# Entry
Amino acid sequence: MNILPFLLSGISVGGQYALIAIGYTLVYGILRLINFAHGDVFMAAGLMMIYISATLPLQAAVPLVLILTVVLGFLIERVAYKPLRTAPRMSVMISAIGVSYLLQNTATYLTGGQPMNYPKLPLISETVSIAGNNVTVVTIVTPFLVLALVVALVQLINHTKVGMAMRAVAKDFETSQLMGIKINNVISMTFVIGSALAAIGSMLYFTNYTYITPTAGAMPGLRAFVAAVFGGIGSIPGAVIGAFLIGICENLIKATPYTVFSDAFTFALLIVILVVKPTGIFGEKVTDKV
Amino acid sequence: MLQQKQKKTGRLIALAGCLLLLVLVVVLENTLNPQGMFFTVLKKSAVYTLVAVSMNLLNGFTGLFSLGQAGFMLLGAYTYAIFTLPAASKDSVYYLYGGSAIKFSLTDLFQGIFGSEGAGGMVALWLTVIVALILAGLVAALFSWLIGLPVLRLKSDYLAIATLGFAEIIRAIFTWDVLGPVTNGSTMIQGFPTFASFNIRLANGETFYLSSFVPVFFATVCVVIVVLLIHSTYGRAFKAIRDDEVAAEAMGINLAKHKMISFVISSFFAGVGGALFAMYINLAQARNYTTTLTYELLLIVVLGGIGSITGSCVGTFLYVAASEWWLRGLDEGTFLGISSPLFRTGFRMVVFSAVIMVVVLFFRKGIMGGRELPDLFRRRRRPAGKEARGK
# Structure
């Protein structure tokens, strides 16, 4: 059997997961919160694209979707997570689940529960032939785009003032606050970056699918989270490598008769990683303070 | 001495209350319209209450944040369905896989002993369902023990995501077509005894309705068991672990053992609840037990108050009644006499999830906080003592 198309789509899907996983890993690194709503922000970006591209030309729709997704991510943080800054971690997580529930229900309401057709994006939706296999351009573009974005993000984090603030906050919440870092701005910044990447990810991801349902974001979101844990939560290169690995494995499993286990594999990997090496492959060792 | 006496009266009152509730359900169902919305809500909330209480035992009383409830419910539902499906309907249900691999059926076993008609049939039905429910719980408990061995070592959100992953794995396994002869793949299993099977057809052609009584009865029995557990030594150990693991360990509580007990018992009741849920929706199918179900249950527990059994019961009823019944108008165009083009399908859930967000953000203690029903009566009598304990 020819596994090349599966491998190619694995790399492509992996890249798309990587873009979501970065959002998880950044937020977890700073707030110690699994942002369950992140997958639904990803879905919301897809829905926005459908509605906006129906009225506006694509050149205007793409930046508008980016901006609106960023605003959505920012608002979620301000409304649902900021009031709970001093609350136990579980309360924030429950709030995240609540936001996810709200976004899914709102999406169901707006779409009337119908699957919505995703628009064909010119250039990246076209098909090309590689070694006799028909693949869409997006499959080839994704890994390069992801790498470019990741390099840019790493530069941002390592060489700018806001990046330095993010690293400081991730290291120690209280101390960095005492050092005069405006913690709320830094947290908002993480959500802005995460949402923007999720918006780009959603454009790449959904072009390969014909339609979006209100729950379309949940599974990719969870898979991306697993990728983030796998790579060592808080580490960007880790999240990217984890995402590529999970994307490739998932698609290779789809080439075998065990297709139903493609998601199960991801979660089995998660449980194994958590039990064997909870800090992930690139994670820093944390010591519990009693 | 006095305290013991008070405890005894308290128990009697509680028992009388439960009996009264059950009698009331039977009387109401046979006097009001049994097809009414109230009874649908009642059945669904009885089922959800049981699972919410089981989740509360784990999340609220032991402090283990688990999101695997849907997986254990699925195990319970399938166990119940597979073992109660009469042999006669197996071929038609499993037609895709050329019949079921499990020839055994509890329904046939008990009907063989007691007959399938009249009083004997009712005895056979009750025994079938009770045995199958216990079996459903045991299977869920067994799997929870297996999964608990590795994952209970994890903490807070890692535990949550690992149990959530486990539920997804279980769902994938049950839809795997190789196991089709047992689980019927992704196709539904139906034709097993449901709540409506308990209705008795009287000689004069009328029906004596028991279909709401049955779920309420099973849920009440299970909730009472959980309440007794919480008031036992084990329950106090669970609460100690929740409040401070290190201190609890220093006091000589075996953490691993007690966490496992709590996890297994919670899963047992989730399994029973899953079986009841299958009876409620008349079918067992893996796609009904997704993470959305777990999230829904978690929000119910939060709504009622984490760490309050009373809260979970009240919270479930309010949640189910509001989402299924009271807010229907929001979907159908007119609500409280106001009609608006905004009110169309799905709007109810939007309003509802917004309300839940408000509760999560601003009323973090939920309806009951950590209090139980008796605390509401006690508070007025000794406010000073309550204050002192709170500090």
The first strand of chain A starts at residue 116 and ends at 117. The CA atoms of residues 146 and 152 of chain A lie 10 Å apart.
